[in-house]
Amino acid sequence: MERNAIGIIGAGIAGLSCARILQKHGYTPVLLEKGRGVGGRVATRRTDEGFQFDHGAQFITARSLDFRDVIASLSREGAAAVWSGMDREIIVGTPSMNAIAKALAEGLDIRRNTRVTELSAGKGNWRAATNLDSVLEFDRIIITAPQPQTVDLIGEEHPLSKAVAGVRMSPCWTLMVTFADQHDIPFTSRSAPDSYLAWIALNSSKPERPDTNSWVVQASAEWSERNLEREPEDVAQEMLLRLCGVLRVDPSSVLHRRAHRWRYAQVEEPLGKPFCRNVAGTLYLGGDWCLDARVEAAWMSGKAIAEDLLGELNA
Q1: What's residue 46's pLDDT?
Q2: pLDDT at 248
Q3: What secondary structure letter does DSSP report for 250?
Q4: How far apart are CA 144 and CA 278, in angstroms?
Q5: Residue 182: its pLDDT value, please?
Q6: Measuring CA to CA, which residue among 138, 60, 92, 93 is closest to residue 299?
Q7: What share of the chain is helix, strand, coil (3-state, %, to 5)?
Q8: How does DSSP classify residue 181?
Q9: Can you tell me the distance from the alpha carbon of 266 to that of 51, in angstroms, rounded to the nearest whole number?
Q10: Which of 32, 158, 274, 280 supports an S-S bond with 154, CB 3.0-4.6 Å?
């Protein structure tokens, strides 16, 4: 059995933020990530045809001085840039949104394709059983998965599950579509929260993207909730027809289309504090769902966990 001091479940922005700070102070946390990549909802999908879609978080804003410094550093490294032509300064990853996560992940011990199937507390340690038929042992464990998945992992009767029971997250259906060349493009992005198609963006208008007529469309939380269990192809067809009406495009000009379901896309009712932990300081829960539906909120949660844990370790 492999013994480690600190384990972090999830290599999204919160997990990466936490791990980088711990590493900076001399610790070597192990991140267990169920997917092939890192970044969670800061994600990019690429196709065999060369099309590219930022199908998760669309952009980043920075309000705190600390996070502005992070964005400035990423920009100097070429992993982030301003999306010009918008009505305010917003940042995107370059050449893709997940470039931000890749830059934050550099140098960290990340075990990809490793899903924690069971978490149990022992005498002074935690045991994480995985889909790889392995068991890893940790002195401290940090879970940065979405709140519902976190509760499933530790159990509904766990005191921390009850402490975060008021958190509410909403789903989102996302359409990725590429049309043949179009000369009359009505806009490069449109936010209409009260509309069925709540967000529409020309993905290729972002800096350093392939020069294709590729769009990302995100349905409203209400519509996504009502249609959550539908087949992706049916959702793609319905969203596509509505999009074609908005853009005044012939549906026959579609070169690629696909729908992706984010079951836990955004926090609607946050926890109201950066993280939750047990009294012993051996189990931490965090993520954007603690604070707000923003990438910065995930980063702040991870940072707060790391700082609190460092206080415990150095006490």
Answers
A1: 96
A2: 92
A3: -
A4: 15
A5: 73
A6: 60
A7: 30, 30, 40
A8: P
A9: 26
A10: 158
Is the pTM higher than 0.85? The answer reads yes
Q: What are phi and psi of 16, to 5 degrees?
A: -65, -40
Tell me how far apart the alpha carbons of residues 96 and 92 are, in angstroms, rounded to a whole number. Answer: 7
SS (H, E, C) 106-174: CCCEEECCCCEEEEEECCCCEEEEECCCCEEEEEEEEECCCHHHHHHHHCCCCHHHHHCCCCEEEEEEE
CA distance 177 to 252: 12
Residues linked to residue 285 through DSSP beta bridges, in sequence order: 143, 276
Segment 210-259, tens digit of pLDDT: 999 999 999 999 999 999 999 999 999 999 999 999 999 999 999 999 99
Burial class of 309 by CB neighbour count within 10 A (0 to 12, 13 to 18, 19+): buried
CA dihedral for 185, 189, 191, 195, sign (positive or negative): positive
pLDDT tens digit string along 107-140? Answer: 999 999 999 999 999 877 999 999 999 999 999 9
Task: Walk me through the domains of the chain, giving residue ranges and CATH numbers.
Answer: 2-42+97-167+270-313 (3.50.50.60), 168-268 (3.90.660.10)
Structure tokens at 22: 């711990």
Q: How far apart are CA 27 and CA 21, in angstroms?
A: 9
Token duo for residue 206: 């972002």
